[in-house]
């Protein structure tokens, strides 16, 4: 079983729609939950991270973590064509440096 | 402030040749991590280095792969006698400090080196 499972997509939405991305994980020791965005042929860049359970909002982006169900979500409101990218969820434990990544979901926002 | 730099961006090798991938961390960062991304799979941790030290190479294949981070110069990931299964994108990341318990120590990623083995 993979440590982090992510809906493979691809996902295609019209501009202005809400994008919903999800991951599940198996390691209950994970404490940090990250979302990275990766444009084509580029390296991943950190969008936001959450510590333990709860919600975190940053502009049009909202991350949710439910540790009881080992479920992670990212919502993008008012999606823009510039949001078209692959979104990677990643987790790690406290005091750890190894990031465990999902395979990524490719999102296309149509103008 | 330049980000993490990797070169070459694309590398083509024939089976049996050697591949050398280079990574220069962000200014002020002394921790370097290498990850490999196979098609349709997530990034997988390979190795964690500090200057002149390999801290954790638990994700490295036991044979043909090695990494170093010398006192001067970039970190090098070396793959000897490449095989087709080594074809992947190799990403380097760097951080200022090691991950602590009270906050997330962001790893900044380079653009990757895409290795193709013919």
Describe the protein.
The complex is a heterodimer of chains A (111) and B (118). By secondary structure, chain A is mostly beta strands. Helix content of chain A is 0%, strand content 55%. Chain A is built from no helices and eleven strands. In chain A, the strands form two sheets. In chain A, strands 2, 4, 5, 9, 10 and 11 form a six-stranded mixed beta sheet that branches. In chain A, strands 1-3-8-7-6 form a five-stranded antiparallel beta sheet, with no helix packed on it. Chain A starts with a strand and ends with a strand. By secondary structure, chain B is mainly β. Chain B is built from no helices and eleven strands. In chain B, the strands form two sheets. In chain B, strands 2, 4, 5, 6, 9, 10 and 11 form a seven-stranded mixed beta sheet that branches. A four-stranded antiparallel beta sheet of chain B has the order 1-3-8-7, with no helix packed on it. In chain B, a hairpin with a 5-residue loop joins strand 4 and strand 5. Chain B starts with a strand and ends with a strand. The mean pLDDT of chain B is 92.
Query: Could you describe the largest sheet of chain A, including whether it forms a barrel?
Result: 6 strands, mixed
Average pLDDT of chain B works out at: 92
The proportion of strand residues of chain A reads over 45%
Helix fraction of chain A by DSSP (H/I, runs of at least 4): under 10%
Q: How are helices and strands ordered from N to C of chain B?
A: EEEEEEEEEEE
Query: Treating each run of at least 4 consecutive H or I residues as one helix, how many helices of chain B?
Result: 0
Distance between the termini of chain B: 36 Å
Number of strands of chain B: 11
Structural class of chain A: mainly beta
**In one word, what is the shape of chain A?**
globular
* Element-by-element helix/strand order of chain A: EEEEEEEEEEE
Structural class of chain B: mainly beta
Shape summary of chain B: globular
Q: Evaluate the radius of gyration of chain A.
A: 13 Å
Gyration radius of chain B, in Å:
14 Å
**Residues in helix, % of chain B:** under 10%
Largest sheet of chain B: 7 strands, mixed
Largest interface (CB within 8 Å) is between:
A-B, 29 and 32 residues
Helical element count of chain A? 0
